[in-house]
Design goal:
By secondary structure, the chain is an all-alpha fold. Helix content is 65%, strand content 0%. The N and C termini lie close together (7 Å).
Length: 161
Amino acid sequence: MPDLEGFNSAPAAQLRPLLAECLAVPRWVDALLADRPYPDVDALLAASDRHADLSDQEVHAAIAGHPRIGERARGDGVSAKWSADEQSGVTASLADRLLAANAAYEDRFGHIYLVCATGLSGEQMLADLTSRMGNPPDVELRVVSRELAKIAALRLRKVLA
């Protein structure tokens, strides 16, 4: 994986798939590539945040590739590994409770529950999911959009690690 200098100089075609693993929104990927070169990592993260104001359609497309909290990601690509690391706070003892909570959330909102899980315990994720059940659907979609932006920033740091 490239450092910042490598990120700035790599061909767009080489970076595009890796950036899509961070956030599967082509407009976001294209914007980050177009804004190069970045003077430092903070500038890259600021650009990521600036371009991560997602439309409802982009949010739905981006979450399509994420596993449910407590489930393993499909495949063996880099995002599947990242997802497993990010969800490391989920224990087997919470699996049934999370499965039921996810099902209720999906029934209410029509999409999976998504949170930036890094550093959160399974209990914290379950509490967050429960607290968000009272959100109106449009508000919840904005919450999901913010969570996607947080995940993208964490994954960008991993790209440069």
